[in-house]
Design goal:
The complex is a heterodimer of chains A (about 375) and B (about 400).
Chain A (H helix, E strand, L loop, with lengths): L2 E12 L2 E7 L2 E3 L3 E5 L6 H8 L7 E6 L2 E2 L4 H7 E4 L11 H11 L4 H14 L15 H13 L5 E5 L7 H16 L3 E5 L3 H7 L2 E6 L2 E6 L1 H32 L6 H14 L3 E8 L4 H8 L4 E6 L4 E7 L4 H11 L4 E7 L3 H14 L6
Parallel strand pairs in A: 4-9, 4-10, 7-8, 8-9
Antiparallel strand pairs in A: 1-2, 1-3, 1-5, 5-6, 10-11, 12-14, 12-15, 13-14
Chain B lengths: L1 H20 L1 H22 L6 E6 L5 H12 L3 E7 L2 H9 L5 E4 L16 E4 L4 H34 L4 H18 L13 H32 L1 H6 L5 H31 L7 H23 L5 H18 L11 H7 L3 H15 L7 H21 L5
Parallel strand pairs in B: 1-2, 1-3
Antiparallel strand pairs in B: 3-4
Helix pairs in contact in B: 1-9, 2-7, 2-9, 3-5, 5-6, 7-9, 7-10, 7-11, 7-13, 9-10, 10-13, 10-14, 13-14
The chains are: A alpha/beta (about 375), B mainly alpha (about 400).
Chain lengths: ~375, ~400
C-alpha cells in the first residue's frame, strides 16, 4: 500500500456552507503528515470524515486501504485518534478508560492487559493509572488519551492539536513519542497551529484554506515554492519598470545614458534571486566595507550598530560561503552569522492570504 | 455478539460508576421523589386541619353551647378564642391571628324571637385555601343546627295545641320530620377503601419521577456525552449506533427501575402506602414507562448537539405533561382541551395504569389499553430515535 490516505473529491456541506470542497490528496504510508489551515478552514471536518466521525456529502476516501463510506468499521479498526479536546470519561480512572477502549476494539483480555501496561510505561503514566481523568493535568490527560488511542495498535494515528496548552517539556515528550510511533511504521496525521512542531516532525504538509487544498509539499518544497513565487512577483514588477524605461529612452526622454544603464543594471540585479545575510564583525571598518561593496554577489549592504551588517546577496548555493571566506581573508573577525529564509509560518501566511486575495470565500 | 455484550456492560458499568462517584447526584436521585411526595402529599394536597378561628357568642343558652361544641369538635377549626366582642374578633382576623371569625347574633338563643338569626362569618379571603375550606364547612354546621331548630319549633307548636301530649305529639311530629330527613340520607361506599390524596398522588409521582429521570438522564448520557466528545470516543471504535443506544437504554433502565423500586419501598415504609395490586405488575409498569420515556429521550437527543439544546427541546413537552397528565388532579376535572391533550401524552397512561394497579388492585386485563398505548408510544419513539440518530459528531 503506497498511500495511507487517498481522497477523491471529498466534500462536506452543511446546508449552503461548503466546509470541504472536492479535496484530493495522497498521504504516503508510514509518513508524518502535517495538516494545516486557519481556524474554520475545514481541517477538523476533513479529519472527522477520514476518521468516520462525520459522513462525507460527496466524494470519498481510502484510509488504510478501506473506503470510508463502504467499510467504516474496517477503517475504525485501523486508525486511532487523539482529539483536540480530551474525550476520555472524566469520572473514570485512566485505567478504566483504557480498558473501556480496549473492550470497544474487542481486544482479548491478555492482550488488553499487556498493551495497556506497555503503553502506559511508554508515555510514563502508569503511576497515575488509578486516578480519575478529571483530576489529571492537561499533559497527563493528553498522554492518557494517546494510550487509549493506541491500545488497538492502529496503522494510522490522527493527532488533532495534541500539544495545545502543554508545557515545553511535555511537548517534547509527545514529539519524541510521535517520532517513535512513526519509526515503528505508523502513519501520523498531525493537525497543528504550531509551525515549529510541524516543521520539526512532518515529512509532508498540506495547507487547507476555505475548504480547498491550497498547498501540498514537503516543508522545504513549500518554502522553495514560496521563494520562487516571491521572486516571480518581483521579477514581473521589475520587468514592467524596465519596459517603461525603454519606452522613455525610445522617445528621447533619457539624457544621461550612463546613469540610465547603471540604474537598469541595478534593477535587473535586484530582480535576481536574493536572500538576506546578517554578519557580526568585531573589527568592522571602512576598508572592510569597501571590500564587500566590490563583491558582485552582494547587492546591498546596510550597516548597523556594533559591527553588524545586513546584506542582500544572490541566493546561490555558494554565495554565503564565498562572502564569509572573503571577510575572513580580509582579516575580518566574525562573531555571528545568520541568514533569513522564509519560515513555514511565512509560507502559511502567504498561502492563506493568497487565497483571500484571490477571492476565495473564507466562510 | 460477545464483544457487543461487553460494550453494553461497559456502558452500564460506566454510568453506575459515575453515579457512585458523584454522591450528591446519587443522593438526589433517590431523595428527590421522596421530597416530592412529602411536599405534594402533605404540603399541598393533604386534608386541611386546624385553621385558627375566633368565635363571638353574644348570647347564652343551650343553642350557643351546642353550636360551640359542634365547632370545637370539627378538626377543621382550631378555636383560638371565644369572645363576646365582634370588633375584637374582626381585629384578630385582620392581624392574622385567626383566619375566620364566626359571629353568633345577639338573639341566637331566643327561640321565641321570629326575626332572622344571622350568623356572620368574616374570613381572611387573602388565604384562598383556608377560606375555601372554612366557608362550606361553616355553612354545613349551621345548616345542621338550623334543621335541629326547625324540629324544636315543631315541638313547640304541638305543645301550644295540647299541653298533655306535648312530648308524644312532638315526638310524633319530630319523628315524622326525622323520617323525611332519613329518606334523603346518602350512603357512601368506598369501593377501594379509604384512599387519601397521598395514596392518589404516589403512583403518579412515581410516573413523573420516571419521566424526568429517563428524559433528563438521556439528555446527559447522549447529548451531554456528544457535547463533551465522549460519545466521539465510542464512535471512533467499530461500534454500531444500535450497540451504543442499546447500552445507554439498558444503563438507564437499570437505574430507573432501581429507583422506582426504592421509591415504592420508601412510600410504603415512610407514608404507609398500601399497594392493592400486584407488586410485580407495578414494577413491570415502571419498566415499561421507563422504556417509553427513554425512547422519548433518545428521539430528542438523536439530532441535538448539546445538552442545552436538549433541555430547550424537552422542557416545553415535559413540564406541561407533568400538569396535564393527571399527576396532581384527576384529568376529568380539567378543562376539555387539557383532557384532549392529556390523552396524547404517555405519562397519562403510565399514571392511569399505576393508579389502577396500586389503588384498585387492577390486573393486566384491566389495564391492557394503557399497556398497548405505552408499547405503541415506545415503538414510535425508538423507531424515530434509532433511525434519526445522528452519528456525526
Amino acid at each position: 500500500m503506497k498511500y495511507a490516505i487517498e481522497t477523491f473529491d471529498l466534500t462536506k456541506k452543511y446546508d449552503d456552507f461548503t466546509a470541504v470542497d472536492a479535496l484530493n490528496m495522497k498521504i504516503d504510508n508510514k509518513s508524518i503528515f502535517g495538516f494545516l489551515g486557519p481556524n474554520g478552514a475545514g481541517k477538523t471536518t476533513t479529519i472527522k470524515m477520514l476518521t468516520c466521525l462525520v459522513q462525507a456529502t460527496s466524494g470519498t476516501a481510502n484510509v488504510a486501504g478501506y473506503d470510508i463510506a463502504t467499510n467504516p468499521n474496517e477503517v475504525r479498526e485501523k486508525i486511532g485518534m487523539v482529539p483536540q479536546l480530551v474525550s476520555l470519561y472524566g469520572d473514570l480512572t485512566v485505567r478504566e478508560n483504557i480498558d473501556l477502549c480496549a473492550d470497544f476494539y474487542g481486544l482479548p483480555q491478555d492482550l488488553k492487559i499487556s498493551r495497556a501496561e506497555e503503553l502506559m510505561e511508554l508515555v510514563d503514566i502508569k503511576y497515575a493509572q488509578n486516578k480519575l481523568v478529571k483530576q489529571l493535568s492537561g499533559g497527563m490527560k493528553q498522554k492518557a488519551s494517546v494510550v487509549a488511542s493506541l491500545i488497538h495498535q492502529p496503522d494510522i494515528l490522527f493527532l488533532d492539536e495534541p500539544t495545545i496548552g502543554l508545557d515545553p517539556t511535555t511537548k517534547r515528550v509527545l514529539w519524541d513519542l510521535v517520532e517513535e510511533l512513526n519509526s515503528e511504521g505508523r502513519t501520523i496525521i498531525l493537525c497543528s497551529h504550531d509551525m515549529y512542531e510541524v516543521e520539526l516532525l512532518c515529512d509532508e504538509i498540506g495547507i487547507i484554506n476555505s475548504g480547498v487544498l491550497a498547498a501540498f509539499d514537503t516543508p522545504s518544497g513549500l518554502k522553495d515554492t514560496m521563494i520562487h513565487e516571491e521572486q516571480e512577483k518581483k521579477s514581473s514588477k521589475s520587468s514592467q519598470v524596465i519596459e517603461i524605461m525603454d519606452e522613455l529612452r525610445k522617445e528621447g526622454g533619457v539624457e544621461d545614458n550612463v546613469a540610465y544603464d547603471q540604474l537598469k543594471e541595478k534593477i535587473e540585479r535586484k530582480n535576481r534571486d536574493l536572500k538576506e545575510l546578517s554578519v557580526m564583525i568585531s573589527n568592522l571598518d571602512d576598508s572592510m566595507l569597501n571590500h564587500l561593496n566590490n563583491i558582485p554577489s552582494i547587492l546591498e549592504i546596510v550597516e548597523h550598530d556594533s559591527g553588524r551588517i545586513v546584506m542582500d546577496i544572490e541566493s546561490s548555493e555558494e554565495s554565503v560561503s564565498d562572502i564569509i571566506s572573503e571577510i575572513i581573508n580580509h582579516g575580518g573577525n566574525i562573531t555571528s552569522i545568520s541568514t533569513k529564509d522564509p519560515s513555514l509560518e511565512d509560507v502559511f501566511m502567504s498561502v492563506t492570504t493568497k487565497n483571500k486575495e484571490e477571492g476565495v470565500d473564507d466562510g | 455478539m460477545m464483544v457487543e455484550t461487553k460494550k453494553i456492560m461497559w456502558m452500564v458499568k460506566k454510568d453506575l460508576l459515575v453515579l457512585w462517584r458523584h454522591k450528591p447526584r446519587l443522593f438526589s436521585l433517590f431523595l428527590f421523589p421522596i421530597i416530592m411526595i412529602t411536599l405534594f402529599g402533605y404540603g399541598m394536597g393533604g386534608t386541611i386541619n386546624n385553621i385558627p378561628i375566633v368565635v363571638v357568642d353574644q348570647s347564652q343558652g343551650p343553642i350557643t353551647d351546642a353550636t360551640l361544641t359542634a365547632i370545637k369538635d370539627n378538626s377543621l377549626y382550631d378555636v383560638k378564642e371565644i369572645t363576646s366582642d365582634p370588633n375584637a374578633a374582626l381585629a384578630m382576623v385582620q392581624n392574622g391571628q385567626a383566619k375566620a371569625a364566626i359571629i353568633l347574633p345577639t338573639n341566637y338563643d331566643n327561640l321565641n324571637d321570629t326575626s332572622p338569626k344571622s350568623v356572620i362569618v368574616d374570613v381572611d379571603s387573602s388565604d384562598q385555601m383556608a377560606s375555601s375550606a372554612v366557608i362550606p364547612a361553616t355553612q354545613g354546621i349551621f345548616n345542621g343546627i338550623n334543621q335541629q331548630l326547625a324540629v324544636q319549633k315543631l315541638q313547640t307548636t304541638s305543645s301550644n295545641i295540647t299541653t298533655t301530649t306535648v312530648n308524644s305529639t312532638s315526638a310524633n311530629s319530630g319523628n315524622a320530620y326525622q323520617n323525611i330527613l332519613n329518606t334523603v340520607d346518602t350512603e357512601v361506599n368506598k369501593l377501594y377503601g379509604n384512599i387519601s390524596y397521598l395514596d392518589f398522588l404516589v403512583p403518579a409521582i412515581i410516573g413523573m419521577t420516571v419521566l424526568f429521570g429517563c428524559v433528563f438522564g438521556m439528555g446527559e448520557i447522549v447529548a451531554g456525552e456528544r457535547e463533551r466528545g465522549e460519545l466521539a470516543r465510542l464512535f471512533m471504535t467499530p461500534t454500531s449506533v444500535a450497540t451504543v443506544i442499546g447500552g445507554k437504554i439498558i444503563s438507564k433502565l437499570v437505574q430507573e427501575t432501581g429507583r422506582g423500586i426504592i421509591l415504592i419501598v420508601a412510600a410504603i415504609l415512610l407514608f404507609g402506602i398500601i399497594i392493592n395490586g400486584s407488586m410485580m405488575l407495578t414494577v413491570l409498569l415502571i419498566i415499561l414507562g421507563a422504556l417509553c420515556f427513554i425512547g422519548f429521550g433518545i428521539m430528542i437527543s438523536a439530532r441535538v448537539s448539546s445538552q442545552e439544546d436538549f433541555m430547550q427541546s424537552v422542557m416545553p413537552i415535559t413540564m406541561p405533561m407533568m400538569f396535564v397528565s393527571g399527576v396532581f388532579f384527576p384529568i376529568e376535572t380539567m378543562p376539555w382541551i387539557f383532557q384532549k391533550i392529556a390523552y396524547i401524552l404517555p405519562l397519562t397512561y403510565v399514571n392511569d395504569a399505576l393508579r389502577a394497579v396500586m389503588l384498585k388492585g387492577a390486573g393486566v386485563g384491566d389495564i391492557w389499553l394503557d399497556i398497548v398505548v405505552l408499547i405503541g408510544f415506545t415503538a414510535v419513539f425508538f423507531y424515530l430515535g434509532v433511525t434519526q440518530f445522528n452519528r456525526d459528531i
